[in-house]
Amino acid sequence: MKKLLVMLLALILVAGAVVLSISAEAETRTAECPYCEKTVEWQPVTNSNKANFGDGHYYLYEDIRAFGQKTITGTTCLDLNGKTATTNNRSLLVNTENSILNVVDSGTNGAVVSQNGSNNIAGGTVRVSTGGTLNLYSGTLRYISAEGSVTARGGVIDTYNGGNVNIYGGT
Asked: Which end of the chain has the least Cβ crowding within 10 Å, N or C?
């Protein structure tokens, strides 16, 4: 019985070390920003730190589920990094007045996906509000509407009261 407990404890310790080593990989990285045209530090976005974005550079470290609505303030660069951020019934990224959101994908097949499971009254995968700007350099913005759902305003990009959209690449 004592050997079994020792083996179980050893297994728990090994599993904990593996989890710690995996989570330690989500680190700040240094890379060039196509918008800024300079080398900058990119902060990781994981399933455990899905906060709103302020001025800065962020990259998707992993596929993100239930990303939720994000309020963009200042100038924000988001690198999809070949990953996908998905949510239901909410705009994923919302530009507030006088903010800029730059979307790039340094990997392949990176996407921001909004899935409408029911009614989406004010939506869009990306909603760009008055005075806000969306610059899409690469990556994919996708909106999936459920059969029989109602979308009063939305789609892939919702420009609300004069938001600005510039598409330089991507889909």
From this structure: N
The residues of the chain scoring below 50 in pLDDT are 4-10, 13-23, 120-121, 150-152
d(CA 35, CA 27): 22
Contact 99, 127 (CB under 8 A): no
- Which helix (H) or strand (E) is 43 found in, with range? strand 38-45
| pLDDT value of position 135 | 93
**Nearest Cα to Cα of residue 45 among 128, 90, 110, 117:** 110
From CA 32, how far away is CA 38, in angstroms rounded?
Answer: 5
CB distance 132 to 72 below 8 Å: yes
